[in-house]
Amino acid sequence: MKYRSFTVKNREEWDSYVNKALLHDVFHSWTYHSLNTEGEPLLFVYHEGDIFIALPVIKRKIEGTGFYDMTSVYGYCGPVSNINAVEMPKNILMNFKTAFMSFMNEENAVCIFSRLHPFVNQCPLLENIGGVVENGTTLYMDLSSSVEDQRSGYEKRLCRQVRQLREKGYIIKEADDISEIRAFVDIYHKNMDRLHASSQYYFDEKYFIDILRSGGFESKLLLIYDGAVLTCGAVVLLSDTIIRNHLSATSPDYLNESPSKLLTDEISMIGRRLGKKIFHLGGGVGGKEDSLFEFKKRFSNLQIKDHIWCHINDRNAYDTIVAKAGPDIDLQSSYFPLYRQPRKTKSCISNIEAIAD
Description:
single chain; about 350 residues; Aminopeptidase; 11 helices; disordered C terminus
């Protein structure tokens, strides 16, 4: 059977494929990709008979060269399809690989990196193209269980802390004007300063306004006040079945109080009211079981494997670009691609999770 492959750039056709997929998320949408400023959003589509595989990517220029590379958006992306990946016929997988290689060559792309979606079965689509690598585990709450079962999974001290925070009379509300967005952006940037985050995580005010008012997907800015004082907040993203804390921050004056514990519990309650099945908490920095991971684990020990996908399309070009990147490159690092490795500075945040205090 003949197949065809092509790239999509317009919103209507892009989202028509994503919405027909068996499973998809906010991160696959045209609107979310349009917020990216690193490069050009592309949707690579492979179509054979009634089956399609669609892969959203960001095409980036490699400075000082005539080459490009591909990456995924900030979040959990990877390919989607209208059938379960484990049921995909082997000949279609092979044809998809051939078509994808042609796409990379046509776009003059040296390599591709993507953070895969833990709740979408994508590995069978990619395991014969480059390498799919485990990247630790990611944590989640099962919102289809009872509230009592959910909270029984909290660390005992955490249960008491959440209850005490609720008894203190904090005001929990959804932001409804630009001044509240600006107040949240201010404490978010202060959080990034405290964590010595790299510049790519300093999302500006426009980014937050766009993500909350784009209309291409459902999102909320949830805030917690102590009287008139903003203590913490989170940008919450919602898909058909999943709710997640995308980006969050706590005021420096309330770090010891840790109202983010109340915030996390409240997001789970909102997810329940909206009929979501999963509250995706995320994992640690770079897939590590660090302090961020341990904070999230206090809410739930339900875990699922996290994966990343790396593929070098042009080895000679890749090696040449790495060699020209300079002596600061750590050739033993697992960072991919190596030539985009952050230079040695203060500690930097490299996870694609909500930032928790």
